Amino acid sequence: MYPDRNPLKEKLEQDKCIHGLYIQTASPDNVEMAAAAGYDYVILDLEHGSFGYSEMLQMIRAAEASGIAPVVRVSQNCASEIRKALEAGAVGVYVPDIQTAEQAEAAVAAVKFRSAEATGLRGACPTVRSARSRGASEWPEYVDWSNRNTVLSLLIESQKGLDNLDKILQIPGIDTIIMGRFDLAQEMGLKGDRYGKEMSEKFELFADQCKRAGVPYLARLSSLNADKARAEYDYWIQRGARIFNLGSDRELIARSFSQALHPLTPPIQEQNASGA
């Protein structure tokens, strides 16, 4: 990506919508197919995905080659893990389970290099992959590019995080904010009901707080029906959302497998029952 402008930053600055997809399997092919389908970015999920650093690096290469922005969801708010994802070539990171303003500040510091404009603490090496191994002579340009182009997304996944949301939103350097509905539903004892009445009310309040603070937030659509999904999409755009995650490769592949088999299942069952 370096030295080109991060297209996610560009679109958000232009008040345009961006659309992404979680990749949870070790599949460069799925990254390429997401690009071919027209997604803006993929989130390579190191927290819940079934792959490690080496596979992540190959998927970042696939993303770069196919023209889709690679973002990495790290497994924890850890400076070294964030740094390794960015040095591999990720143009953004998702940092999970932010509960306090202090944790948000630590995530910002891990993403930013120290400079005249930023008080970051990110470690430095002039020959990392993301700097294209160009060496110390071009290091100032890379530092400036990275501080301006890297997208930091924080996940709020607990009631404590929601209670501290207004303070978190005041931390400079946060590009986008996400409410982790499923983790919250689990914490609340809702057995995964992330789109029910209680969670929907929480998300409406979350959206209001983000909009007041001027921090872009992510929305996810609950309906699989095309017309209802479009109505949801239009509603959340009107409410200020500009970032949309549309599921994961596991989820979409499993759904496609089921949809392909479903029309044939009753005849096969009847055939087996008849002993044919």
UniProtKB/TrEMBL annotation:
<comment type="similarity">
    <text>Belongs to the HpcH/HpaI aldolase family.</text>
</comment>
<dbReference type="GO" id="GO:0005737">
    <property type="term" value="C:cytoplasm"/>
</dbReference>
<keyword id="KW-0456">Lyase</keyword>
<feature type="domain" description="HpcH/HpaI aldolase/citrate lyase">
    <location>
        <begin position="20"/>
        <end position="253"/>
    </location>
</feature>
<dbReference type="Pfam" id="PF03328">
    <property type="entry name" value="HpcH_HpaI"/>
</dbReference>
<dbReference type="InterPro" id="IPR015813">
    <property type="entry name" value="Pyrv/PenolPyrv_kinase-like_dom"/>
</dbReference>
<dbReference type="GO" id="GO:0046872">
    <property type="term" value="F:metal ion binding"/>
</dbReference>
<dbReference type="InterPro" id="IPR040442">
    <property type="entry name" value="Pyrv_kinase-like_dom_sf"/>
</dbReference>
<dbReference type="InterPro" id="IPR005000">
    <property type="entry name" value="Aldolase/citrate-lyase_domain"/>
</dbReference>
<keyword id="KW-0479">Metal-binding</keyword>
<dbReference type="InterPro" id="IPR050251">
    <property type="entry name" value="HpcH-HpaI_aldolase"/>
</dbReference>
<protein>
    <submittedName>
        <fullName>Aldolase</fullName>
    </submittedName>
</protein>
<dbReference type="GO" id="GO:0016832">
    <property type="term" value="F:aldehyde-lyase activity"/>
</dbReference>
